[in-house]
Amino acid sequence: MLDKLREGFQNAVNKLIGSASIDEKEIKEFVKDIQRTLLSSDVDVRIVLEICQRIEKRAVEERPPPGLPRKDQIVKILYEEFVRILGEGGKLDLPTNRSNVILIVGIQGSGKTTTIGKLSRHLVKKGYRVSVIAADTFRPGAVTQLKTICSDINVPVFSIDDEKNSVKVAKMGVEHFRVQNSNVIIVDTAGRHKEEKGLLDEMKQISGAVRPDFAFLVLDGTIGKAAFGQASAFHNAVPVGGIIITKLDGAAKGGGALAAAAATGAKIFFIGTGERVDDLEAFNPTRFVGRLLGMGDLQALLERAKELESVADDKQIKRMMSGKLTMNDFLLQIESVKKMGSLRKILESLPGFSQANMPTENIEEIEGKMKYWRAMIQAMTPTERDDPELLNSQRIKRIARGTGVPEREVKDLLTRYKQAKSVMKASKGRQFRAMMKQMNRQQ
Ligand SMILES: Nc1nc2c(ncn2[C@@H]2O[C@H](COP(=O)(O)OP(=O)(O)O)[C@@H](O)[C@H]2O)c(=O)[nH]1
Ligand SMILES: [Mg+2]
């Protein structure tokens, strides 16, 4: 899906990651690559400029939290800015205690009938009793098409043979299925008007007859940024409305259609990614952009960034610099070391872990132990963490039992903590500052 956009993003990211250093020149180059990619996906120029300016400004100005490489920070910025452009995904929330009428509109060929099959399937899977009304009385073969799709998924279809009045069909269909206690009644329409106004008029007519609880505009993703006009007209006219964008599989302009629709303030609820009945996805911008950027990796990066941001909590650093150290601070030190990935490099600068009392051969062993230290510290009560002096033998026993380690491991942790604390006290936090500096140097 959206292969070109994905390729463009990934090439830009790979180039950035591959460059020896990150300076304004590399940032500018990166932004230019992104710009080119977005434009070739038919994203509107104004949107492209806005997103690129924001990425550049943030990439130049924002400093990553200690421990997060600058490159990763920039990828994260790209991710955040693209998610922002796509707005919030819509969530369809249909009460089960009544018949919800959903009206589907959109110009002919945009994918309404296909999407109705997909949407029905999606809702049936969620446990709704779904039924469909064939109110496209305009296009020959439309009713048969809908019936074929729906018979495959066991969804009943209401139609009236040789009836040309779509409003009448829609109205009778809704009455028919209300009596049968359908949870969801979906109305298919013709959308024979190409221009926005005609389409909306048609919608209003049927809408007046069936009083839908929800209306979807189906937009063909291959029209790119031209989606803006239809989406905004619809968004302004329909109070209960959402957007479905189809044909994002292989649509070179799909990115443009998504951005344009989102720019109107309308919410995109679903995207169509193929012709088959299962090719519908709830639109979730974070997941969507994550996939575009090709990641697995991105998820890991975002989590890492989040952890590191919490590590660089100002208050905590200040407190440590003043020579105080709670068990939570100690945990934070341990976590920071772990997140650095290269324990060997910074071991020396961490109080209590200096070469003197920790020979390098033991590094693996320490790393192994850290897992348990974390668990032990988490097994402490908040008061114990603030004041580890409270930890008498009874409490030590409890923590050991709670974490499934021998008591001597808890005692070992306490020794380590005391060492760190005395070094902290003696150096008034200088040691910690050194560690932070070391972290920054690694970016
Ligand atoms: N590749 C692809 N084709 C689609 C998708 N959705 C619809 N189509 C195709 O688009 C054409 C028009 O779809 P249809 O549902 O009849 O549009 P309608 O006139 O709005 O009801 C059909 O050939 C569908 O198979 C999609 O997500 N991906
Ligand atoms: Mg149709």
Describe this structure in words.
This protein is an alpha/beta fold and 443 residues long. Helices cover 58% and strands 9% of the residues. It contains 20 helices and 8 strands. Strands 3-2-4-1-5-6-7-8 form an 8-stranded mixed beta sheet, sandwiched between helices. Helix 2 packs antiparallel against helix 3 (45-61) and helix 4 (70-85) crosses helix 12 (297-311). The longest helix is centred in the C-terminal third of the chain and has 21 residues, at 407-427. It is elongated. Mean pLDDT is 84; it is low at 341-351, 354-361 and 439-443. The site of magnesium ion has 5 residues, from helix 5.
Concise summary:
With 443 residues, the protein is of the alpha/beta class.
What's the order of the H and E elements? HHHHEHEHEHEHEHEHEEHHHHHHHHHH
Question: What is the distance, rounded to the nearest whole angstrom, between the alpha carbons of the first and last residues?
Answer: 34 Å
Largest sheet: 8 strands, mixed
What's the total helix number?
A: 20
Bound molecules: guanosine-5'-diphosphate, magnesium ion
Tell me, what's the shape?
A: elongated
Q: Please report the total strand number as a whole number.
A: 8
Strand content: 5-15%
Rg to the nearest angstrom?
29 Å
- Lateral strand order in the biggest sheet: 3-2-4-1-5-6-7-8
Mean pLDDT: 84
Low-confidence stretches: 341-351, 354-361, 439-443
Helical content class: 55-70%
